[in-house]
Amino acid sequence: MGMIPAELKYAKTHEWVRTEDDGTVTVGITDHAQHALGDIVYVDLPEVGDTLKAGQEAGVVESVKAASDIYAPISGEVIAVNDELADNPEMINNDPYTGGWIFKLKPLDVNELDDIQDSDVYKEWCESGDH
Amino acid sequence: MTIFDISTTGRRATAQAPLNIANVDDLIPKALQRSQETILPEVSELEVVRHYTRLSQKNFSIDTHFYPLGSCTMKYNPRGAHHAASMPGFKQRHPLAPLVYSQGYLSCIYELQEFIKDVTGMKGVSLTPMAGAQGEFAGVAMIKAYHLSRGDFVRDEIIVPSAAHGTNPATAVMCGFKVKEIPVKSDGDVDLEALKQVVTERTAGIMLTNPSTCGVFERDIETISKMIHKAGGLLYYDGANLNAILGRVKPGDMGFDVMHLNLHKTFATPHGGGGPGSGPVAVGERLLPFLPTPIVGKQHQSEKVTYYWLTEKDIPQSIGRLSAFMGNAGILLRAYAYSLLLGRDGMHEVAEFSTLNANYLLKRLEQAGFKIAYPTRRASHEFLISFSREAKEYKVSAMDVAKRLLDYGFHAPTTYFPLLVPECFLIEPTETESKEIIDAFVEAMINILDEIKSNADIVKKAPHSLPVKRLDDVKAVKELDVRWESGKNS
What we know:
The complex is a heterodimer of chains A (131) and B (490). Chain A has helices at 31-37, 91-94, 119-127, and strands at 9-10, 15-19, 25-29, 40-44, 51-52, 57-63, 67-71, 76-81, 103-107, 117-118. With 131 residues, chain A is an alpha+beta fold. The longest helix of chain A is centred in the C-terminal third of the chain and has 9 residues, at 119-127. With 490 residues, chain B is an alpha/beta fold. Chain B has helices at residues 24-27, 45-58, 79-85, 88-91, 103-120, 132-149, 167-174, 192-198, 221-230, 251-254, 263-266, 329-367, 388-394, 398-407, 435-454, 456-460, 473-478, and strands spanning 124-126, 157-161, 178-182, 203-208, 234-239, 258-261, 281-283, 295-301, 304-310, 371-372, 383-386, 414-415, 424-427. In chain B, strand 2 (157-161), helix 7 and strand 3 (178-182) form a beta-alpha-beta unit. Chain B is globular and about 75 Å long. Classes of the chains: A alpha+beta (131), B alpha/beta (490). Chains A and B meet through loops of A and helix 17 of B.
């Protein structure tokens, strides 16, 4: 299952979402997801200025096993991406919740955050089957 | 080790060297002669033979090992087909020779076009695409040409189920379409509700593999076909899994408008050899005017039958020429010979035995305690098992089991594809394996399952018996180094 910090929210597609003090949100993939993917070798990031809809593809994480899409958990404008991942994609493996963040969004509608799972629900979702 | 590492200065393969070397200046103008020494390995003939024989022995190949690599159809390709395609009359034919000297070759190719029409239930065939990906490109380009020819300019979306091969969305994007992905249900069939929601007046078509990469036959294909056609879209059939249904179920009968075949897979050329390939396209009535050129035509001239090339003059709406001389002639000839060797009944048996072998292996693995991904479904020519339980309980991954299988003398099945099933093996035994071989594979799998439970380390650290141990996958991706340089240690 891996670590599931209680203060974050979680999409069913295994992205985590952290609401920052300034109202923006930071997005990455969960410990569970990085573990399932295995060693990550490449990250395709969205571009700053992109406007994404909730559930829209935001980028791609490529591991030695497979390439997986990353989805925007809520709608918003991309205001920052983690450029360090270009040279050090393994940061997602080593530190999925801090150094391995992927992009930041300025939300279009903060109410969409209510539709995303809390940590305990996500934990159950992971345990309930092969996700 | 490369052959340069065994080089000894001055050593020669004398039997291979020319007896008399003419004066180079008489043959090649000074300006065109090289100024530096060539870097060639200096080895005896015996050293060359031993070096390459040893390298070949390090390989897992269909000639030496059971190779159940799912989605790849690693079956035995009869030597007879290769022999027939290698006859001097074929090999020495120049592609630009006048038609009158190519009648034999062209008649074979014409007949191959007819065989493919018959086995797919389609109305027209072009053998010109050079590989599966180009076949897909040709197919979707024809779908585009069809809509445009009708003044239908709004269709910019292609629907692709999540169980598709990765090439399908790539092809759609190459042809300028947006991809609409739809999920498959827990039984492996396409989610019809989700499909309903994405089918609109913007739908140019859908790309399907049937049987799908989940190793099951899409049971709702008729409903899907009606739904897409009603909306004005077309259906593309990815021929990657054609081995499962060869001649028994025809894509044309299922309502598909266009498809490609991988001759380098289903029709007697080994797949996965790095090429060359051959990916003919076959079409239904609607797309006939758009087939890529050239195609072989047949005409009756004063009681004599002759064969000739159809070009864009004959097919003015064609999407165009995709290869110089209609693809890889040798592979087309092998496919022709293979079709003749099998005959119609033999083709049916390919489908029957590839599915029988897969279902036998599926049941035996199920009885042995392996987790079957779609337990309620009959397998097509391949099926999925999952090691998610073993991964959770014993921290042993599908990759570990794959590596351990090598120690037992079996090429591993496809791992981690499709992504829908975690820790999966996609297993395709093919029709050319005997029951004894499949039973031996089952025994190895049972042994490995015991090892996982009693001594997981032996599986996690596998392979133990091969010249190369566990590779550093990450380093291989990040620091790819496949070039040999003289003077640099390899």
